[in-house]
Amino acid sequence: DSDEPIDKIMEQEIAHIGSFLGLSHAFVMHLHRSDPLIDVSLQWCAEGESDIFSRTRDLEHYWFLKEPSIQVISGEAQITAAERETLEKLGIRALAVCPVQVNEQPAFYACFAECRKEHVFRTVEIKFLTDAIRILQNIITKRNQRNSLAGSYAALESMLDNIGSSIYVRDIETNRLLFANRSLRSRFSKELKEGTLQQLFEGGIPSQSHSGNCEIYHEDRNHWYDLYYTRIKWVDYRPVFLCAIYDVTEKKVYQRRIEQQAYTDFLTGLYNRMCCERDLVKYIEEAKRTGSKGAVLYMDLDDFKHINDGLGHQYGDLLLKSISKALSETVGIHNSCYRMGGDEFVIIVPARSYHLFEEIIAHLQDIFSRPWLLKDTDYYCTMSMGTVDFPEEGTTVTELIQKADIAMYEAKKSGKNRIAKYSDNIQTHSSKRLDMEKKMRDASLRDYDEFEVYFQPIVNAQEEGTPCVGAEALARWNSKDGFVPPSDFIPLAEYLGLINPIGNHVLEVACLQCKEWNDRGYPDFTINVNLS
């Protein structure tokens, strides 16, 4: 007549029996109804011993769980070599298996084992086990009668109806829906009526999965749900599948909003650098998987600084927005345009759009051939662009963007308003340029002492004797590796923004030299200096 849970009573009973018989272990097993697997529902062991089973769910069926009456196995028992090997793996040297019947069917198997030494069950011990198991069966039967299914179901229904999630319970063997709480009946009445509930929520669950959770998208409703599922014993002990469903659409919308902020350029509305790097990985893998190719276009606006400085930053921002809108409306790349920062953009031509590559390039050139209306006036802004194909010319984000940037610089060096395709030759030139750039920056830290000034005489051919009347200052870069031609270092100095400091250095040297010549008796002597 105890009010303790039946599991607690069974645990106490098994422990008492095992202790009374002086055994080392006892455990209770029950069979699955829908498959040949078993679960260990409880274990007991004597002091100083440890449980036999570390894993207790979905175990393979053991051979000794087959007889409808008590089965005793000891050292002298007539069993096969394979059966004895199974016991040895479990460490069992003697075993008594007692079926616990409910409604005239074995519901559990109570097993009593000795693992420390050989043991032969005596007749009196077997009789004791028979009586003890019969008592346990009576307790379970009375408890089932006292806690009628109707009362248990009503209490459970009331509890589940007041839970925030939508819940349903399905019979594993028959697939029949046993229960649906108020929330589920209200939210999914259509699916219940059409019989599509299981297909909608359980379609993606692995067949052998005992419990877990997954995310479900309901396309017709445009809603997201979190599904939590588990196998349990229902009020009448039948195995069931319980599913709890939570509507997480608002959370999803919020997550998308946060993601959009993280991956979107605030000024232009295009995707940003972080999104570009993420997407490019996906596009590269797609091209590799399908054996196709795509392209990365690196674009830089020509002389954008002049518009910013001349019209003001607000009009520079307006130009960036207008350009971004035009890029995003281009067929084939409308969803793969990115602002990398400043006046630099990256465009990815996915593998599925690569057949439009020439049309895309032509359209981009057409965009920048037209004027932009700023401050009620038409202004032209051109672009230089470098292109590189993937995966044949690179399979990583860093490599592809770097190569496209190298090609873009080559386009600028060729006179701007051009498009250059990456090649190994460009890479070689780029390496030389990087080396030259480092050396030029190092020279700038030493007051441009490597930039020497040479003076080319200017003569007056109209006067008798063609006297020298002045000179023209010529800058020459005498680097540690030798002289660098002006045609090479002047464009680089302009690109790096070092041309003005170099010009100031040349002007200062020329002024000092002119003063020296004037002081030595040539007051009319002049020096011409060309400033960039």
List the helices and strands and how they pair.
Blueprint: H1 6-20, E1 25-31, E2 37-45, E3 59-60, E4 71-73, H2 81-90, E5 94-102, E6 105-114, H3 123-146, H4 149-161, E7 166-171, E8 177-180, H5 182-187, H6 189-194, H7 197-202, E9 211-218, E10 223-233, E11 239-247, H8 249-263, H9 273-290, E12 294-301, H10 304-311, H11 313-328, E13 337-341, E14 344-349, H12 357-369, E15 372-374, E16 377-379, E17 383-390, H13 397-413, E18 419-421, H14 424-445, E19 451-459, E20 468-479, E21 482-484, H15 486-496, H16 499-519, E22 526-528
Helix pairs in contact: 1-3, 10-11, 14-15
Structural account:
This protein is an alpha+beta fold and 532 residues long. The protein folds into four domains: 6-146, Beta-Lactamase (2-Layer Sandwich); 149-251, PAS domain (Beta-Lactamase); 267-422, Alpha-Beta Plaits (2-Layer Sandwich); 434-528, EAL domain (TIM Barrel), CATH 3.20.20. The protein has 16 helices and 22 strands. The protein has helices at 6-20, 81-90, 123-146, 149-161, 182-187, 189-194, 197-202, 249-263, 273-290, 304-311, 313-328, 357-369, 397-413, 424-445, 486-496, 499-519; strands at 25-31, 37-45, 59-60, 71-73, 94-102, 105-114, 166-171, 177-180, 211-218, 223-233, 239-247, 294-301, 337-341, 344-349, 372-374, 377-379, 383-390, 419-421, 451-459, 468-479, 482-484, 526-528. The strands form five sheets. The protein has a six-stranded antiparallel sheet, covered by helices on one side. Strands 8-7-11-10-9 form a five-stranded antiparallel sheet. A five-stranded mixed sheet has the order 13-14-12-17-18, sandwiched between helices. Strand 20 and strand 21 (482-484) form a beta hairpin. Helix 1 (6-20) runs antiparallel to helix 3. The mean pLDDT is 89.
